[in-house]
Every structure is written in C-alpha cells, then in structure tokens.
Amino acid sequence: MSSSATASVPLAQTTTQKSSDYRGLRVCCWCVAIVLGAANAWATRFTMNPDGISYLDLGDAWWRGDWHNAINAYWSPLYPWLLGLFLRVLKPGTYWEFQTAHLVNLLNYMFALACFEFFLRAFMHSHKTRLDVSNRGEDVVLPRWGWLLLGYSLFISISLQLISVRLITPDMAVAAFVFLGVGLLLKIRSGQATRTNFVLLGLVLGLAYLAKAAMFPLAFLFLAIALFDVIHLRRERGAFALGLVIFLGVAGSYATVLSIVQGHPTFGETGKLAYGTYVNGFDQFAPISPELKHGVREIFKVPLFVEFSKPIKGTYPLWYDPTYWHDGLKPHFDFGGQLKTILKAIWQYVVLLCSPSLQLCFTVGLAVLYLLGPSPGHALRRATAANWPCILLGISALSLYALVYTEYRYIGAFLVLLWMAAFSGVCLSPRPGMRLTLYITVVLMTVSSIALTASFVASGKLFGASDAEAQTRSLNYSGAVNSLHQLGYGPGDKLATISTEPFGEGGAFVARLARMQIVAQSREPEKVSSIGDPIKVQTALVIAGARAVLIAGVPPKTQRLNWHQLLPEDYYVCDLTMNCF
User: Fold this and answer.
1) What is the tally of helices (H) and strands (E) in the chain?
2) CB neighbours (10 Å) of residue 235?
3) How far apart are CA 159 and CA 170, in angstroms?
4) Residue 160: inside a domain
5) What is the pTM of this model?
6) How many angstroms separate the CA atoms of 82 and 173, rounded?
7) Which of 461, 489, 505 is the last residue of a domain?
8) Under a CB-based contact definition with an 8 Å cutoff, are residues 372 and 437 in contact?
9) What CA–CA distance (Å, rounded) separates 387 from 225?
10) Which of 428, 445, 461 is where one domain is finished?
C-alpha cells in the first residue's frame, strides 16, 4: 500500500470524528433553539396585536374566496394564507383562536431555524474556501465549532428578542426567506451552484415579496449580486435568466393584480403610507382631510365620533385597508421630518448595539477581537472582501427602513448577516495565548447571549405584560364574547366603540372573536358623558349600521342602567334602541 493511501486512513478517521463532534454540537444548538422558541411561544400564546386582527381577517377572506376583500395593497398575502389555512383546518373556538395564530408563529420560527441552518452551512463553507491564501494555517481564526456557537447564539437571541414570536406578523417568515436566499447566493458565489439553485433563488425571493412588500426592492439587490457572480464566473447565465423569470412570475403576478386593483403600477402601498405617517405626520388610523377621496365621515365633533361603515370589510375597516382611507393624501419629501426619522433610526441602532439586554455582548466581543488583531481596519477589510454581499444586503435593508420607519423585528435577519460578516474579519496573530483568548471570547458571547435570552423568556415579562396578565386579557376577550352572545349579539352584527384604542383591546380583539364589525368610533371616552345632543349621536350611529355601542371602561353615568356589563368586567355594551348617552 502506498504511503499516500496509508496516510488517508487516519485523515479520514480524523475528519469523520470531527464531523461527528460537530454534529453533536449542532444537535445541542438545535435543542436549545427549539426549547427557548417553544417556551417563548407558550409564554406569549394569549397575546394579540392590531396587525394580527387584519391578518386573521384577510386569511378568512382568502379561504372563503372573497377575492375583492382579500387582495390588499397594505398587507401582503402569504402570512394570511397560512393563518387562514390553520383556522380552516383546526377550527378553533373563541378561546383558542389567538393561540392557533401563535402556533403558526412557532412553526414559522422552526422553518426559520431550518433556513438558518442552510445559510450557516453555506456561510461556513464559503468562509473556509475564501480564507487568505497567505494564512497557511498560521493565523488564529474562528474554528468551525466557534462559528456554530456564534451563529446559533445570534439566531436565537435575535429571533426571540428582536423578531419575536409574540406578534402576529410575518417577520419571522421573512427572516427565513432572507436566510434561505443568502444561503443560495453563497452557493452561487462558490461556483458550485446548479440550475436548481437559481430556480430556488427566484422562488424564494418571490415568496419573500409575498410575505412582505419591502422585500420587492431588496429582491433585485439579491438578483444583482447573483448576476455579478454569474458574470464573474462566466457561466450559468441561462440558469440565472431562469431564476429571474421565476421571480418575476411569482412576484409579478401579484404585483400586476395589485396594480389593476389600485389603478396604477404598484407592488404595494405600505411604504408610501408609512412614509406619510412617520415622516409627514399623517394620522395612522383615522385621517381627516379635505384632500381624501374617501376618508372617514365625521358625525359629531365633541366628542369626535367618526363612522366608516362602507365599503371596506373586516373587523376594523380602518386597519383592514388603510390605503383606501388615506387615498388622496400625497406623501412628500420633508427635510425636517426625514432628518428626524433618520436620526431616530440611528439612535435605535445605537441602543440595540449598546443595550446589555440585547446585543452588547456581541458588540464587546467583536471589539475585543478586532483590537487584538493587527488592526481594526485590517479586520474590516478582510470581512468586506470575504462577505461583501452580506454586508451590502444588511446595510441596504437597515438604510431602507431608516428612511421610513424602523422596528427591530424588521431588521433582525439582516442584523444576523452583518454580525456574521463582521466576525469573518477576525484574524489574530499566532502569539501565545491568542487562540485561547479567541475561544474564551466566543464561549462568553454564546453563554451570555443565551442566558439573557433564556432570562427574557423565563421572566414572563414581555413588552410590559406578564404571561399571567396576558392570559387574563385573553380570558377577558373570550368572556366578553360569551356575554355578547348571551345578550343576543352575534356574527354579522355591527358595533360602535368608545375607547382610546378601538383598534386593539378597546374593541377590535373582542369584535374579531365575536365575528362582529366595528363601523364607528370615538377615541375620546373622557368626553362621552358631556355629549350635548345624545339623540343626534345615536341616530347617526344607527344610520351607520351599528346595533350597539361597546365601551372599554366606565359607561356614562347618566344612562348607567342601559349599559350591560360584560363578564369579565372590562367592557360594557348598550343597545342603540336604548338611551346610551
């Protein structure tokens, strides 16, 4: 037997042993991610948010074939499809409906975990093949196990603390598509991509757009990076063209339908309306302006009552299709408002990186490792040269949201890309103690981030509401619905609401579970007792189609006997055949 053949045996054994070790570590990381994700989903299973009501309503519309009300220029369709499917199959009762929506969120989290695994494998392979040739194994870089610990700790902390499974939104699904898309890009960059990779890239980007409209412009950046690599590698141009056709077929079909419905070319109106709201100062829920083509109708001034009974459906029409009610308002460039929005976003990013309960452990760890290297500039150049697509995509997404409106859940996946790219620049000189320092830093970052995330989940203190408080609120919603049914109200009936938050706890959450619709509202409950002409108000509410008035809080003292207290005690209802004010 030749010496080379003999040498290959121990080498193969070593490789197999290392792979086995990494497989065990990977399984441990998955177990931690699944346990914390499931615990977080369980702790938040009773919560609801205004966006969630619109998504649930849209899901119903899609699955009952109500295309006119299902096609919406503000809310993307993929997430409602999923919600509607689970509600249609499982048919949960009033108490379980919101919890079923959280089950969909948990499954989205599991899907994102699998997509991150795909991305992490592609990233580690790409990083290994692109290590500086002059390294020759002498410089100290992150080992494979270090990338696994770092990658999964980033995924877990960002997914559960920033993106969250608490809110009924598509952001976790968007994160999954981002990881999947970047993983496919890395495969294309490695020169090992097949035609299937390009087809999948086009499909993933199309689905990402169907999950969130902001992914439409970002999808073209993904495609531009893929095209650059195709041109650079001088092959697979036909495969790229096929992937582009797949993307245009998936995304273009829905964008075309939206454009026909809206009467002008569009891929979604969310960005335009968000710009008008957060930069120009439009009223987010109930705009009143002479410029509006079909705004809400004012029916009383003090307190302000508005009605919106036609033509939009949904539990809370103002938030079911905001583009209809804002039609006519023209977003415009406002230097002062734009600067304020950008500065606010920058401050949010600074807080994110410097908060001990969020990302400070990674910020400190990266700073330490950069300072221990030849120079921070050298590390940054190394990271940029190796992983510029991740950096470009991450900065582009953060900049896009900074121009309009930023929430951490929007940028979570892109933040993971930036952290991974930044750590790829770590390269320490082979001085004594450097390898041990690197290993200790990685372990400390991992342990601290997982401990903080576990503490966040275990504390039950989520966005100011404990699990017990959230469960009490959920019981209040379902209890109020049962009381409404006992009083003779049911699906199809219409409500007027009096609450500072009619789009959420003040009305929409109860109305959704009761399958009722809010058609009028006042957001000034403190002024209701001083209505000068109560008969005029009630007549206007009846004309709007409302059968009863729901108030979250204390009803007017003058007509207390005509208000029925719903059990639990958070809500009162008055039939408009009685004197309510």
Assistant:
1) 21, 9
2) 12
3) 13
4) yes
5) 0.90
6) 11
7) 461
8) yes
9) 12
10) 461
One domain for residues 66 and 210: yes
| Strand pairing category for 548-552 and 494-498 | parallel
What type of residue sits at position 72? N
Q: Clarify whether residues 323 and 351 are in a common domain.
A: no
- Answer whether 496's CB lies under 8 Å from 550's CB: yes
Evaluate whether residue 54 is within a structural domain: yes
Q: Please count the structural domains in the chain.
A: 2
CA distance 472 to 155: 31
Contact yes or no for 357/456 (Cβ under 8 A): yes
Q: How far apart are CA 385 and CA 307, in angstroms?
A: 57
3-state secondary structure of 146: helix
323 and 368 inside one domain? no
Examine the domain organization and report whether 443 and 481 are in the same domain. Answer: no
- Based on the domain organization, do 402 and 416 belong to the same domain? yes
Among residues 45, 507, 525, which one has the least CA distance to residue 315?
507
Non-local (6+) Cβ contacts of 158 within 8 A are 412, 413, 415, 416
**Mean pLDDT, contiguous 10-residue spans, the chain (581 residues):** 38 40 86 94 88 96 92 94 95 90 96 96 82 58 91 96 93 97 91 84 96 95 90 75 93 93 91 90 80 86 87 93 89 91 95 92 93 86 89 96 94 96 88 88 94 85 51 73 92 93 91 94 85 85 92 78 83 90 82
Same domain, 192 and 89: yes
Among 503, 500, 569, 580, residue whose Cα is nearest residue 540: 580
Task: Check whether residue 245 and residue 375 sit in a common domain.
Answer: yes
Residue 432 domain boundaries = 29-263+336-461
| Alpha-carbon gap, residue 286 to 361, rounded angstroms | 42
Q: How far apart are CA 113 and CA 484, in angstroms?
A: 41
553: phi > 0 → left, psi -120 to 50 → alpha, else beta; which? left
Domain match, 436 and 564 both: no
Strand residues in 108-188 grouped as ranges (E): none
